[in-house]
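Entry 12.
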Amino acid sequence: MASEGKMIKTVIFDMDGVVIHSEYLYDLADAELLRRRDKIFEREKVISQIIGKGFAEGTQLLKDVFGLKDDISILVSERREILEGLYAAKLRFIEGFPEFHNSLVKLKVKTCIATACADNILVTVESLLGISKFFGDRIYKISDVGNKSSPIRLYFFMPQSKWVHYMTSVS
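Predicted 3D structure (tokens):
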């Protein structure tokens, strides 16, 4: 794990598609949301814009792109309900993640998650997979940065007290 004589000390993981196999569940949820409105989900129309968006922002994108007429609050609630059902039935870790994480721990590499995942979805992930057993309290989410979805914002505009806590816990 050395590069030019330096050892990796910390790894910051994204959650969806890196730690948990969830991106396809969003596709299934979006397809179902649209099917209920006699629309066909075309992933290629939104994928480049929806990845990394917060849940409400992603739902608004679906509303705009596919011409959905319902109020955004109804769409967010329904999409969340569909996704939570899919999570309960199908959510799992990315193949090899637990073993990879364990190898980092053996090398004394500290880890955390920085994710655009909504708090309620994160609660579901925790109850199903127990991700805190890998990351402890080092799970940083979109609500920690005012629910702004840019990954750069998540990494660079997190309140300093959170980073100080994180850097203390990984040092």
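Annotation: The two ends are 18 Å apart (CA to CA). The longest helix spans residues 72-90.
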